[in-house]
């Protein structure tokens, strides 16, 4: 089991035939980085040290970067009612050239026709919204793991997006919604995946600043009636805003995930910062 | 422009260096080829390895070293062109054919090769061999991997964990 065993060639020769010497972790990592995700998941069962290495955040980041730079063809992720009529939703992935769809997993009690998938995965994870329950799910299409998020304040006019905070290395779901009774009130709450605050939604202290309320309302409107979900890009979770709110301009409401980062304001895009008060 | 004695390629006789394997075999090779190794490059730039001196490589035996040098000699011209941006498609196809053929070898040779590539820091070879090992193991079951690596049979507890993993991630075992 020691690394030294493989360093001297003489030691290799006395190994029983068919038995490979154990390579140092550093080299094994190079090998693992070239494996498809299916093998990575399977090899977590080989032994505890492989499990620790292959499950580590460091390795996952390296593998993700390697897969991206290998420019593997993109795949389409889509939700559809499962064939069993049991009110469950199936998630499929298909390659753009292939003829076959791979069933990734099914979610029971989520009704296929009412499930939205976030437009693009954020650092490997996707946000799913079941409008009937209602419930949010976070899923990893690569490892086929699904987590149902805790219940939240139910309203019909709400929008949520998934972002990744590169500083704390945490995933967060940011949800903006209209209060049920007071017509004017808007709320914003955050769920942090594996966060220190525990498994719950945390209201943003101070609520939505007054000057952003009309934009937030527009973002909700777009998301609910036009099915335009926010996108996480360039460190910001960005919602499109109804153009009539910003005459002659396209508008975005964005939620920054890195406090020191500032968006570039182009002529065509007017970026609005909604900063989380800390 | 370069002085003849420091030129390592196109002007006249190429500069040669000597490498000495762990079992004391001497290999004379062009400095440009040996310089594919990051580890050797500095020594060679300092003027080492020439004449009767030779660079000792106590971690690499002669069989492995001759294999490593076969790779370096083949890849040296392309590497001298800065990763061969202006290489023809034919040249690249030829290198690819060579690479595929090159790693089509016995498992034990492959393992000493990966260690040597790592010790000598030959980037292209490291990634070539790593890719080959990945291709060899990617379809194996956890149990097959354990046997290949000579791990002891799993304890009942470990076996239960392996079974549970297989139940949970059945799709990865298909």
From TrEMBL, chain A:
Alphabetized InterPro entries for the sequence: F-box-assoc_dom_typ3, F-box-like_dom_sf, F-box_dom, SCF_F-box_component
SUPFAM superfamilies given in the database record: F-box domain (SSF81383)
PROSITE patterns found in the cross-reference section: FBOX (PS50181)
Residue stretches in coiled coil: none
Domain F-box positions: 17-62
CDD domains listed in its UniProt record: F-box_AtFBW1-like
Name of this chain's protein: F-box domain-containing protein
Primary gene name: gb01989
From TrEMBL, chain B:
Disulfide bond is among the record's keywords: no
GO biological process: jasmonic acid mediated signaling pathway; protein ubiquitination; ubiquitin-dependent protein catabolic process
Transmembrane helix as UniProt keyword: no
Pathway(s) annotated for this protein in UniProt: Protein modification; protein ubiquitination
Limits of the SKP1 component POZ domain: 16-75
Similarity section: Belongs to the SKP1 family.
Assembly: Part of a SCF (SKP1-cullin-F-box) protein ligase complex.
Protein function: Involved in ubiquitination and subsequent proteasomal degradation of target proteins. Together with CUL1, RBX1 and a F-box protein, it forms a SCF E3 ubiquitin ligase complex. The functional specificity of this complex depends on the type of F-box protein. In the SCF complex, it serves as an adapter that links the F-box protein to CUL1.
Protein name: SKP1-like protein
